[in-house]
């Protein structure tokens, strides 16, 4: 790992587990390269801590390519830090200045309990998806690609919604810790495609019910989620979800 | 019919209630502002009093007034409930939260702006609504209509009241600036062909309504209209 010349002060949230209270702890870091990613900077911190015989900072990460949705740091008051459309792993230290103080906190939401330090339990998202974020098809030979025509605009819109990586930045930044952008991305992705139609209105009801049961807050349309989403998921998806939910509850015969 | 209560108590149902009552209150403000703006005709309040007389005596309007109060109360209680629930959704606050990096301050402060408006509303209803409906307007104008305009002139001689009214219109403007466009998004009326129109209408509506209302105490106090 290349060495650099950046000196930083980190204020990192340390919390033993969900039962104990946490606090911000100060760490001084020297010789950080501007070419490091934010997570590589944390690797340096952890190596320092291990050498000193202290407990390393626990944080989530996996692919470090910006596509898996595991990394989840609330950096200087913003999820995934100061840059738009990037995850924490794709944030580089050149986005900061020598001598900066950086505050790093975990996602904060009742539905995302802290596991340890900067790692939170996001299985609430899994349960929302399991409630209806799928299509039921019989297995067998794959159909011919052209047997199910989908207009390009529809396909593109579905694809853009499908880009959600489920990182939870939308919940983290929302002043109400609402999960509407996340839930709506999956609902709208499937609602825009022919394969999603048979379960369309059942899906929106189940997924919204699960989202509410998990203890996420209520959306107040501040738009912070859309602004902070590393994948640029649009608020249009929430509007579509609301429309479908209204149709399902007030116009359709189908109950849950 | 079962399930409607269930639907309305869900997170999206609660949004629908806020949105629908909000749109209803937005429509009410157009009527309220339109009739009050009759004072700018500057005919000693004769036309304005005709409007006020109509509003006070027409049975459709009086029935609408009851619906208005119900809508207002639902809007207020729903907002209170949402605020409390949303607080619970984030029990531990952030040490550092850069809200202005991703959203407008007034979008995040609808509860505060709404509370200021509620305080204003208590003052405002006591000033005019209680007088016209209950305690009675003391004088009549040249047409024999109850002279609500005279009540207005008398109330707005007090500079403190004038300042409270003007400041409250700032709260109203910012509350509407978020609420107007937000109601459309909530109802699912988000469409690339109409979003520009909604956004534009939202800004123009909020500014025009608030300025017109704010001009009323100013015009009376400074004697611009007499």
Automatic annotation (TrEMBL), chain A:
GO MF annotation, one: 2 iron, 2 sulfur cluster binding
Necessary cofactors: [2Fe-2S] cluster; [3Fe-4S] cluster
Family of the protein in this entry: Belongs to the succinate dehydrogenase/fumarate reductase iron-sulfur protein family.
Protein name as it appears in the record: Succinate dehydrogenase/fumarate reductase iron-sulfur subunit
Top-level taxon of origin: Bacteria
4Fe-4S ferredoxin-type domain boundaries: 155-185
Annotated InterPro entries: 2Fe-2S_ferredoxin-like_sf, 2Fe2S_fd_BS, 4Fe4S_Fe-S-bd, Beta-grasp_dom_sf, Helical_ferredxn, SDH/FRD_Iron-Sulfur, Succ_DH/fum_Rdtase_N
Organism for this UniProt entry: Pedobacter petrophilus
Entries under Pfam families matching the protein: Fer2_3, Fer4_8
BP-aspect Gene Ontology terms: aerobic respiration; respiratory electron transport chain
Classification via Gene3D superfamilies: 3.10.20.30, Alpha-helical ferredoxin
NCBIfam families xrefs: PRK07570.1 (NF005746)
PANTHER family linked: SUCCINATE DEHYDROGENASE, SUCCINATE DEHYDROGENASE IRON-SULFUR PROTEIN
TrEMBL record, chain B:
Source species: Pedobacter petrophilus
Key words of the record: Membrane, Transmembrane, Transmembrane helix
Transmembrane segments: 16-39, 59-84, 105-125, 162-181, 202-224
Gene Ontology cellular-component annotations: membrane
Annotated InterPro entries: Cytochrome_b-558 (IPR011138), SQR/QFR_C/D (IPR034804)
CDD domains tied to this protein: SQR_TypeB_2_TM
Name under which the protein is recorded: Succinate dehydrogenase
Superkingdom, taxonomy of origin: Bacteria
Lineage: Bacteria, Pseudomonadati, Bacteroidota, Sphingobacteriia, Sphingobacteriales
């Amino acid at each position: 790992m290349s060495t650099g010349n950046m000196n930083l002060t980190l204020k990192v949230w340390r919390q033993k587990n969900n039962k104990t209270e946490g606090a911000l702890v100060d760490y001084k870091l020297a010789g950080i390269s501007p070419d490091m990613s934010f997570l590589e900077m944390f690797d340096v911190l952890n190596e320092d801590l291990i050498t000193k015989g202290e407990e390393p900072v626990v944080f989530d990460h996996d692919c470090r390519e910006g596509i898996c949705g595991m990394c989840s740091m609330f950096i200087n008051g913003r999820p995934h830090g100061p840059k738009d459309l990037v995850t924490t792993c794709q944030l580089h230290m050149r986005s900061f200045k020598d001598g900066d103080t950086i505050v790093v906190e975990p996602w904060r939401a009742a539905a995302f309990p802290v596991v340890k330090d900067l790692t939170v339990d996001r299985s609430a998202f899994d349960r929302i998806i399991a409630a209806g974020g799928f299509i039921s098809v019989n297995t067998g030979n794959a159909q011919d690609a052209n047997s199910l025509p989908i207009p390009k605009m529809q396909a593109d819109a579905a694809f853009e919604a499908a880009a959600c990586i489920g990182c939870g930045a939308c919940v983290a930044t929302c002043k109400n810790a609402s999960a509407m952008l996340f839930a709506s991305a999956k609902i709208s992705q499937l609602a825009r495609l022919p394969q999603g139609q048979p379960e369309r209105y059942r899906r929106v009801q189940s997924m919204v019910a699960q989202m509410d049961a998990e203890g996420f807050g209520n959306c107040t349309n501040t738009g912070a989620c859309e602004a902070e989403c590393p994948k640029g998921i649009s608020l249009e998806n929430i509007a579509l979800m609301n429309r479908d939910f209204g149709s399902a509850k007030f116009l359709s015969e189908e109950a849950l | 019919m079962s399930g409607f209560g269930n639907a309305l108590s869900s997170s999206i149902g609660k949004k629908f209630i806020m949105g629908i009552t909000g749109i209803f209150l937005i429509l009410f403000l157009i009527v309220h502002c339109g009739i009050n703006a009759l004072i700018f005709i500057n005919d000693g309040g004769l036309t304005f009093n005709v409007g006020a007389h109509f509003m006070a005596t027409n049975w459709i309007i009086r029935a609408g007034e009851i619906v208005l109060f119900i809508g207002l109360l639902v809007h207020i209680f729903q907002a209170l409930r949402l605020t409390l629930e949303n607080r619970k959704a984030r029990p531990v606050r952030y040490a550092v939260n850069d809200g202005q990096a991703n959203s407008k301050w007034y979008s995040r402060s609808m509860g505060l702006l709404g509370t200021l408006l509620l305080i204003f509303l208590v003052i405002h209803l006591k000033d005019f609504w209680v007088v016209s409906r209950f305690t009675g307007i003391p004088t009549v104008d040249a047409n024999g209509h109850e002279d609500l305009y005279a009540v207005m002139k008398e109330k707005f001689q007090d500079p403190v009241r004038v300042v409270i009214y003007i400041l409250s219109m700032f709260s109203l403007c910012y509350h509407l600036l978020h609420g107007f466009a937000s109601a459309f998004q909530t109802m699912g009326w988000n469409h690339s062909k109409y979003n520009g129109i909604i956004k534009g209408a939202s800004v123009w509506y909020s500014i025009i309504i608030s300025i017109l209302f704010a001009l009323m105490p100013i015009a009376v106090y400074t004697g611009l209209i007499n």
